[in-house]
Protein 1
Amino acid sequence: MSKKDSDIPWVEKYRPKSIKEMALPSARLGRQRINLSEELENFIKHFFEERKKINIENKEIREFNRTVIEKEQKEEKKISSDIAAVLLEGPPGIGKTSIVYALANDFNMEVIETNASDTRTRNTLERRLKETTKSRGIMDFITESKEKLILIDEIDGIYGVQDRGAIPTVLDLIQNTQFPIIMCSNEYKTNLQPLYNKINRYEVHPLPKNEVIKIANNILKKENITNLKNEDLELIIDKNNGDLRGVINDIQGIGQGKIEGDVKDLILSLHRDNLEEIFTLIRDLFKISSLKEARDLTDKSDVDYNFLYKWINENLLTFLKSNRDLANAFENLSLADEIFGRIRTTQYWGLLPYFFDLFAGGVALSRKDTPLSKGFQRVVFPRYTSGTYFSLTTVEKEFVEKLKRKYQISQIDFIQGFLPFLKLLCGASRKQLKNVSDWLELDAKEKSLLK
């Protein structure tokens, strides 16, 4: 295997180039089972037909408006939301993103991708998507570039953010888009009902086990991997519980690694994102003194790189105390994010080592003024994991449950809004702290959150 091939994650190397190449998961629209490929292909065709029609009508309206006074002017027409966008909803790793990229290839389109859980406010959403969705740039006309397909991933990650205008902003962008939009989410969220009411929401299910086995065996054959028995492969599939991406990552790890001992033992020991490993890795990373040490640490780790990126980001303030160190670390994280965006756009995975170097080595080596701590340093969970599930400590969860007896509140609203407010309130006086504590019936640990 060439060095270039070994740099490419197999989930990308074997991502289908066409819908026809895919073993498509079953899907439903409401209670009706549908053919997902036909639905999405018709969605794309119908969008461009409608765009052409409305753009012609709006051109005539603009010409008319130039000839009359303001009171007599007509309002320009917009594309209906259900024609402009659709939502694919299903658990992580089942192929939703692959479907979008395959569809784009079939229509010779360019995918413009953003992650909604990383663009949590109205202003950020507008900045990221407004120009992309509303118009073509001048270079598009000069070079006659491809049409665009907008992919907004993890749309369920924007609920509960500091700016409640996020969903209305998405709806507004949908109505004004010049390109079709496909959104993806991991789960149903009642708070996204305004969005569900406007567009088609397809429930996408994991592939059946026999289809996952076919895909895995095909990859093993092409990679000439012979050290996995059928029962080993089935164990990997069962362990990943419908996550095709996880299956492919596991067989790549086993296939490219040097196997010593029983393969079954190795499979059972594979715990992606193992917390103990992450805690150790984060602490060790901020003790390193060279880029080679950082590379060795991340090379040995089985932690998903996107997940690890978020853990490092969350724990910077614990390990770096100097403003200059923090500024350098955040700058390196920003560059890493930019490189990963370029990887996704160009599919040039040879840039992945630079991504690792910047977000791991670059961040850890930013420690110049901060002395190396000799004592225990607590590693904290990132507020958003790789699957956008919000993580709270046990005490925080118990606090939320008691608070829910008084108010209907989400975990993210609790952390980002309610808890900071209660801390300010209770910090004003001991009497306020006692009143709030008695009102919510808090124990000593829960009460300590307010101090």
Note: The chain is about 55% helix and 10% strand.
Protein 2
Amino acid sequence: MFTNFSYFARSASCRFVCFSGLLLVCPLFSTPGFAQACVDTDGDGWGWNGSSSCLVTQAGNGATSAGGLDCVDDDGDGYGWNGFETCQLGAQTPPAVNTNASLNCIDSDGDGRGWNGVESCQVGAGAGNSPGQSTAPGQTAQGQTTSPATALPAGNRPSIGNNNFNSQRDLVALHFDHAPDRDDGHAAVAALMVTDALQLNVQVVAGTHGVYSRDRYDYASEGLMSSVWGSTWHNAHSNRPGSVAAAVNRWTAVLAAGGSVWVAEGGPADFTAAVVRSINANHPEFNTRQRIHVIQHSDWNEDHSLEADLAYAKANTRYVKIADGNDPNATADFRFESHNNGTFVSRARSSRYSNEWGAAFNYLTPSEKLDFSDTVELMHIAGIGINLIRDVNDFGDYFF
């Protein structure tokens, strides 16, 4: 019997309420690191352990991930999900936390680039670097530094370095939440430049925020998106059902034609999860776990996703988390304060994209900051590393 105590435990699949004086069976809140039963009430393989979503143990996969958690490989590709992160079957010991080239490079989407627990890495990069190892940023496998200025002559377009991405067949879904930061305005123009240069097939959706950030949506972004993308973008804030339906139609057409979908996730996972749920419900012939790639770079975006939606996206797509584009790390530094943006702003204003950048700079003045950090996801999809494009000025060299 519970006395003088009440609480709510919620999840995507169940809700339990305990009131004073009532004896109900409820999962107890747990402290991270202390295992509680994972209650799966709807049989989807995911449940609630009293404090967070959890993955119901599936026996027979024969491996555990770092920390002793079961690594569930549902598609037999050697990689799985342990309820918290991508894992590799048979990888019992987590790699040491450092940045040398001996770290195990986990390539969860098979695009040749992965994550070693500290930074983005390239599988098999350079002579003598065997698969599963990474090369430190700015170094070859022999340890010699490479300069973006000499890696590719200025003015040339960088080629797509992701062998699993087919620019003629695959679709890039560009998602912008516009809630609350205005950096999406700069990212929208940068994405247009990359799209033009690499001749990408894209679908642009703005307002892809979650319920936790919906009330911080910036309506001024709509004029900005029209200035950059004309009438070709979808507004998921004002018409979420219509935008989900448009994405489902476009994605399934690409999948039916043999292509894959690559999502540059510039916001929470809620919108993407809705699209994938609809595809799985109506088109079971498509293996979304293998053919829809979701690239996310932001902890904030994940933290502002509905827990059930983030879990669903991770379980039903090839979900890849890369280093945050807002910080100096293994992704390009596309977030510069005004005093440190070099000649980029003046070049932008005099380029063939002057109108688009003008609208973006009116939306977010570069005297405050220059920020198109979400574009690191597009760089990852195309397989363009920091050995080619390291910062905003390198970006300008190749795309203006």
Note: Residues 1-35, 57-68, 92-103, 126-154 have pLDDT under 50 and may be disordered.
Protein 3
Amino acid sequence: MKVFCLGGAGKISREAVYDLVQFSKFETITIGDFSESAGKEVVAWLNDPRVDFVKVDVRNQPKTVTAMQGYDVVMDGTTISLNGLSTACIAEAGCHGINLNGFGAEDAFDETFRKKKKTCVAGFGMTPGVTNMMVMHVAEQLDTIDTVRISHGAFRPIAFSPAIAETTRIEYDPDLPDRCVYEEGQMVKVPPFARPREIQLPEPYGKTVQYIIPHSETRTLSKALQSKGVKLIEVRGTWPTPNMELLRALYDWGFLRNDPIRVGDQEVGILDCIAEYLMISKEGQCTELYGYSLHVEVTGTKNGATYRHIITHTHPPSDGSVKGWERLRAYTRNVGIPLAIGTEILAKGQVSGFGVLTPEESFSADQIFNELKKRDLLIHESVECISGD
């Protein structure tokens, strides 16, 4: 089997490539990236004869398609803004594909994937991805679903890479149309910082106040759980407290609109200026606590009684006591590992169906949880009967 790791030199994607080297059966693992220096740095770091590098630019579709042809699967780690271009290349090359974001740009290429009898899994990291599996794990145990509340804490610097800075900006864009909750059969648009809710994450993270974010679980789970009668789906998230305080101030003062201003002879967006500063500042590159934490709460009925399931996940600490999980890697590995797991499952032909598929349509919870456990990413579940027998 051969895998093409698009954007594989990025801080998160290189961890997915690292996982493929450690656990997968791929015979060829090619890093395809725009940055030749970063790509070759990753090849040297991995030091494995299966790993090589090819320079690609998804804006040049013909050359990128040629580079991808002959690979079983493309593991797409490019940024949200490039996912339309990257998916177009994967579809045209006739490869299976899987990416981290799942914001919907992939849907336009569903017919192409179907015609070529290939599959594209849209959005499979921690969230979306593992969170979808957590919800489906509970859904299998219940007759009906009432509420689904997905929460996560991403404890990382606000701008340790351009992709992360872009994600931060997009998720809190005041004009974003896709920041929705699913409520009584309707998608309801909400503004940034909507519906605050206190979430108790596993230690060392503790209590956090989280807000609605525009992740694809709301859309995909509303379809997957339709037969269960689901009434409410909310997806929340948080970053370290200083990050959230900064974002709140930027929102309150209108900076998140990215209004154009004049600096010397140039017109630039005010938020673009702030993002550039954060990319070079100590404050933008560091945080006190590193890692990732998922919290999923589902209520529903079984045999006439109402239950509340809470599922969380834990990972090795970031304090240096576990080699390979130090500081930022405790965050980047959490995101990259599920992408790598999904990539190998897809390449092995274990996903049924062609076209653009959701995580729920692609994988089983037990399958993913078992693979996560091999990497010391552990799933914890508690069940409480809240009414009835």
Note: The radius of gyration is 20 Å.
Protein 4
Amino acid sequence: MLIQQRTMNLTKNRTLIVEQKWKAEKKHSASQKKTALVYCDNQFGLVDGKTAAALVRHSEIYTIVGIIDSSLAGKDAGEELGEEKSGIPIFSNLEDALNQLPKVPDCYVYGKAPLDTYICNKERALILEAMEKGMDIINGLHQFFSEDQEFADMAALNSIKIKDIRKPPQLKDLHIFTGRISEVTAPVIAVLGTDCACGKMTTAVELNKTLNSLGVKSVLVATGQTSLMQGAMYGISTDALVSQFVVGEVEHSVIQVFENENPDIILVEGQSSVSHPAFMSSLGILKGSMPNGIILQHPPARKSRCDFPGLSMPTVASEIELIETISQAKVMAITLSHEDMTEEEILETIVDYERRLQLPTSDVLSHGCQKLVQALSGHFPKLDKKIKRENFKFFSDKPPHRRNPLEGINAIFHAENRNCLVQNTG
């Protein structure tokens, strides 16, 4: 019995050492940013260009030096997203980019997220050219470039690396559900949505940054390739896993955060939607993380599912009902994607949702995460005590992504006055 206990302790210690070493390596790599050129031809600012857009907005491991999109050449990437000028130029092609940039970037990122399984010959030729120029290849597709013989040979010839973000761990390193998620005592918040590519990851990233700026230790668990490209330290691309391991890998990631980081709160990125007939990741995320609360992202102007014109969008109310039927967690707030909406329509939607659903509603890219912070601090008093009041100026000092008449609507307010805000916005 004693020998068995010593063996278990030794195994546990070795596992801890490996995880600490892995964590240290990821932190070190995150502090050494590489320059990156992002390919997103004819899709930047559109649904299938969400990876490129996300990298322009935020990246902890890459300095984005340019976007390739022949339809928008000469423009600024930030402005094309309807936001502030980013200083990131858009080039017509790879040759144009390399002629104008002061030096060859470290990496070439495939920045589109299409439903197509394989890239076309034109895109293939560009990747080979980027390799010849000495650029590492960062790939978020289900097609693994490292397993392509031509790509592998070209990489070896030019001493460059291919990183397939979606490539899952080996079978021996995967995890099944254990139930240990019940040991996690920090609040776990899942950021789910009503559709694909509607801003779940952006909301999660913005909220994570805001909470940390306020003195709350928040850690984001990534569940998709883009957030991993942005530098999330924990997580896995759930849609690349055999279904047997999705729930277990999500659980394992949340437990890793809890044990390694001692966080005040854990945010979990959602994928697709629970109601979407084509995808299953959200169910695995919901089951694996067993969240204490949910933030629901929705694009009000979208009439049909992304990439599925024959499938109508669900309503916010129907998605909430579905989520709360299969989960013990409650939806705490609604966040909006302002695609195809005017400022007036955004404001009208906020007022409407807050009246009908009695939930704080916001568009974080337009005017911040104030309502989300307030909802969280109201539900979890320990978080409220962690917030450094002197950091509230973060909200007023931080310039909005889009200048609009909604500025100020999300001013910080006390938890007991939440109902007053709902009434006053009417």
Note: The first helix runs from residue 2 to 31.
